[in-house]
Amino acid sequence: MHLNPYGEDAVNLAADLANRPPRSPDELADRCRTAGLVLEHPTTEADLARALTALDAWEKVVDAAEEAERAEQVNAMLAAAAAYPRLTDHAGSGWHLHYRDDRQPLGALLFSLIAVGTALHLAGRGMHRLRRCDVTECTTIFADTSRTGRQRYCSQRCANRDAVRRHRANREASKASA
Description:
Elements: H1 8-19, H2 25-34, H3 45-63, H4 67-80, E1 86-88, E2 96-98, H5 106-125, E3 130-132, E4 141-143, H6 156-177
Antiparallel strand pairs: 1-2, 3-4
Helix pairs in contact: 1-5, 3-4, 3-5, 4-5
């Protein structure tokens, strides 16, 4: 049985690649393999360029201020990656659904995967569940996959940093009013 690879895994891969963009085709391939993608072709400079284009488009989705703008950005990505859904057993690991043409190079595959995965993530979990960390000096992107849908920080470290900052500010405010 295959689980849907287009939701949480796709947005987590996109966040990982956006937060630390790959600098070479080999690095892109290694990180995609680590994320569980089956690569059918050698990775090229053109794949890296297409992946970086996908990540630029995806960051516009992340940074969209309004839900309608976010939907418009995702729809533009979906239109650029348009392909009809198909059943495939390309890796010999069982039949599963792809929202992309078969035998695509990695760059095109990532564009499709990120576009469809983001659309499914936002439609299924909520339009607000893709964002940057709330800590002002942190620009890390994350997909909120929490049960409650109220994740504000990219990591426990940032959550702790912000809690300490708020605590110190409250303590200073108390001293000033006393």
